[in-house]
Amino acid sequence: MYDVRYEEGTLYYRLTEFRPQEARSRVFAYDPETESSTLLYSSDRPLSFVVMNDNLLIYEYQYGSEQQNIDEHMILYSPADHTKETLSIPAGYLTYDGTYLYINPVSDPPSSIILDNSLNEVTVVTSTLRSDSSGFTASYTNEEYVVFEKLWNKKYADEATASITYQFFPKSEIGKDSLHAYEISFD
Q: Which positions ≥6 away from 71 have C-beta within 8 Å?
């Protein structure tokens, strides 16, 4: 189970199955009162999703080689009337906090695009960290901060190690020319 979201009494979750050369994702809504799940969206590709205004905003992609995504789509899906619209906004992994949508594309240097509720670009946060990592994503938000996560995987001889760095950006600075980040690293 991945991408769990709880919105107005409903738990939304995604299940993704990976097999050699293929993947399948499904998004479900779980009603705690009836203890039942409903399939909302199914795809023959991996996806990331958020719930916005009773719709699903979906990043649908297909893995290429060397972690480059090919054939990416940003889709607005309405479970109420089963309509699907392809959007012309940048494609990438999604995080949403009710005020801002964070899109984390596969890019070098790593960055995150911040959009408002009308899907207008507010700012772009570019990582000041090394680019030889497995991602730079907005992984957590609260009222005051958005936290970006960056992970490195290293292998020395027969020993594998990982390092993770978190950058904390005050939300009060979103939209300004430069953002000041607080940083914590773990090895």
A: 45, 61, 62
Coil/strand/helix, residue 183? strand
Give me the residues paired with residue 49 across strands.
58
Q: Using one digit for the tens of pLDDT, what is the confidence trace for 66-111?
A: 555 567 889 999 998 999 999 999 888 888 888 889 888 877 667 7
3-state secondary structure of 172: helix
Tokens 């649908």 -> residue: 60
**Residue whose entry in the numeric block shows the structure tokens 């054939």:** 71
Residues in Cβ contact with 158 at an 8 Å cutoff, skipping those fewer than 6 apart: none
Between CA 16 and CA 33 the distance in angstroms is: 25
Q: What is the pTM of this model?
A: 0.75
Number of H helices, E strands in the chain: 0, 16
Whether residue 76 contacts residue 53, with contact meaning beta carbons closer than 8 Å, is answered with: no
Separation of alpha carbons 45 and 59, rounded Å:
10
